[in-house]
Design goal:
By secondary structure, the chain is α+β, with helices and mostly antiparallel strands. It has one domain: Nuclear Transport Factor 2, Chain: A (Roll). Helix content is about 35%, strand content about 40%. The protein contains 4 helices and 6 strands. A 6-stranded mixed sheet has the order 2-1-6-5-4-3. The protein is globular. The chain starts with a helix and ends in a 5-residue tail after the last helix.
Length: about 140
């Protein structure tokens, strides 16, 4: 992986995790471009930062209250000097370590000196992928 893009991806994912763990929909939404696309694992799309933030107010208050995020980049592909694609494994849970159960793709773009997500896709892992990425987790 390109070291510069590895650092960019790691820093972005850490901000994302911190916002999720704090149940902070505003901070979470601020990590996306104003026109971002966000496809959730059940096959619905959110369009734009405002909709992503508004949706996560409910997510954090209802369905994922108190949950913590685990996320790790497994592949990073620079597309231009200001755009990269990041493949991650991720999971949400109440216990540590949290098992990975999703594969996600982030398209990160540099805007005004900051790296934001312009497109996000979240997909449930197959049984085989769960076995591969969760080796050693109880």
């Amino acid at each position: 992986m390109n070291k510069g893009f590895q650092e960019i991806a790691d820093a972005f994912l850490e901000k994302l995790r911190i916002a999720w763990d704090a149940s902070d929909a505003g901070a979470y939404g601020a990590l996306f471009t104003e026109d971002a696309t966000y496809v959730i694992f059940i096959g619905e799309a959110l369009i734009g930062r405002e909709e992503i933030e508004r949706n996560h107010v409910d997510v954090f208050a209802r369905w994922q209250r108190g949950s913590k995020m685990a996320v790790k980049a497994i592949a990073i592909r620079p597309l231009t000097a200001e755009v990269c694609s990041v493949l991650t494994i991720g999971g949400i849970g109440e216990h540590h370590p949290t098992a990975y159960d999703k594969l996600q793709t982030f398209t990160l773009v540099q805007r005004a000196g900051s790296w934001l997500c312009a497109a996000f896709q979240n997909t449930a892992m197959s049984h085989e992928a769960k076995s591969r990425y969760n080796d050693g987790l109880a």
